[in-house]
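just leaving the lab so this will be short. what follows is a protein written twice so to speak, once as letters and once as structure tokens for the fold. can you read through it and tell me how you think this chain folds. anything you notice is useful, everything is just below:
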Amino acid sequence: MPFINASEVFLLLRKIIVTALAVIAIAVTSAAPAAAVERKDFEIKDPAGTGSDAHGRLNTYGTYFIVKGRILAFQSKVTAYACISASISGCNLVGNQKTLGTADGRVNEDEADINKRYNRASGQAIWVRACFLHPNGVTNCTSWTAGHTANTSIRS
């Protein structure tokens, strides 16, 4: 029977302990809850009353945003936009504005799905708005939403 010295026993015990700690760390990490998600529903209606709208949900995660929804166009062309900025005043910068989608219902009813993902830096928020172009050439754009305009609502 071979003889096992103390240093071999120590190395064997060390491997067992390291393996056990790795298994425990993996178990604890996988059981940790996912990051909280903030969800806000939005609905932006045409101020001219055509029935056109953009509606959906804003999902805010730790490192990204997801915008899902639908654009419905009746008697107007609707373009929905998102703004990603640390403050709403940053929405005036074109670089912070992202087109979510367009539906052109000036001749026939039209609709478009919204399904976009944007990266998020620390402290950034997301706002949405829509612009409605009518057959007479008049365009109405809503304010960036935070639930403050008469034609916009956001529900948490």
